[in-house]
Design a protein that fits this description.
GO terms for molecular function: carbohydrate transmembrane transporter activity. Belongs to the GRP transporter (TC 2.A.7.5) family. This is Sugar transporter. The protein is an all-alpha fold and about 280 residues long. The chain has one domain. The chain is about 80% helix and about 0% strand. Helix 5 runs antiparallel to helix 12, helix 9 runs antiparallel to helix 10 and helix 11 runs antiparallel to helix 12. The two termini are about 15 Å apart.
Length: about 280
């Protein structure tokens, strides 16, 4: 079970590390993807994997989708607090991937799973709403603006795509990691070039740790799925949402009133209750 907590910890600290570097979104993305490539190359050197052209390209495209979604997430961090952006994006991503698995892959094959899954998604969305309703100290004057909302929604959509494309083609395991990281890195370079501004090498290097954190979490989830099953590992890995939300508030010393703290904690609890129920639908 502990390996699933490694996944939660890695994904939980990743956005905090990225924001702590004070780099720009493109520098954060380039450093994170470079760290992921280095990690994947080391993993491949230690455990060589045979690649097939089809799965390689699908995983490569998955990496591109991740890069787009993660870039938009980093952009969101420049406009609103991590404690607002993370539960919103991750909650919607979780909703999207769950609906895809239920509707496209037929994972909710019984009435019990349908009822349980519907209740779970309602809790997830309620948790997202509660954690997003933070006051001005969270970086929002009167709630999320249309521009901020658009960035969050597009980020969640791209990050959902990065997950479901591999699900659709039934590609999993270590064979995903290297081509996926290659797609991430190429997309990060492309986004950086389109910006027309040369990134700071120092800031990019500082974000290598962000990529390592993401990669360790990704690998840990693969291992946990094999050891304890998706039904057990999935809910535990999603504790990352709470780690990122509460951790960012404490580390970046965001000022919160008692009422806002109550909403954040209640929202996180409700969201995790939904995650737990989603885990039950997979058992």
């Amino acid at each position: 079970m502990w390996i699933a907590f490694v996944s939660a910890l890695g994904w939980g600290v990743m956005p905090i590390l990225a924001q702590w570097t004070k780099a720009g979104p493109r520098e954060q993305l380039l450093g994170t993807s470079a760290g992921a490539v280095l990690f994947a190359a080391g993993l491949y050197a230690a455990s060589p994997t045979v690649f097939s052209p089809g799965p390689y390209m699908i995983s490569f495209i998955s990496g591109i989708l991740w890069a787009v979604g993660q870039w938009l997430q980093f952009e969101a961090f420049q406009r609103i607090r991590v404690s607002v952006a993370i539960p919103f994006i991750c909650g919607l991503q979780l909703t999207g991937t769950t609906l895809f698995a239920a509707l496209a892959l037929g994972e909710w094959s019984t009435r019990f799973q349908l009822l349980l899954g519907t209740a779970a998604l309602a809790l997830v969305l309620a948790g997202v709403l509660l954690t997003s309703l933070q006051e001005r100290s969270a970086g929002t004057k009167h709630g999320l603006t249309p521009g901020q909302l658009s960035i969050l929604l597009c980020s969640a959509l791209a990050l959902t795509g990065y997950v479901v494309i591999n699900q659709w083609f039934d590609i999993s395991g270590l064979a995903v990691i290297l081509p996926q990281s290659a797609g991430m890195f190429l997309a990060a370079i492309t986004i950086g070039l389109l910006a027309g501004k040369r990134p700071s090498p120092r800031m990019v290097i500082r974000n290598l740790a962000t990529g390592f954190a993401w990669s360790v979490a990704n690998l840990a989830l693969f291992v946990a799925n094999g050891r304890i099953g998706v039904a057990a590992s999935f809910p535990v890995s999603q504790v990352s949402i709470v780690i990122a939300t509460v951790g960012s508030i404490l580390i970046f010393k965001e000022k919160k009133s008692a009422a806002v703290w109550m909403r954040v904690l209640l929202g996180s609890t409700v969201l995790m209750a939904g995650v737990f129920l989603i885990g039950l639908t997979k058992s």
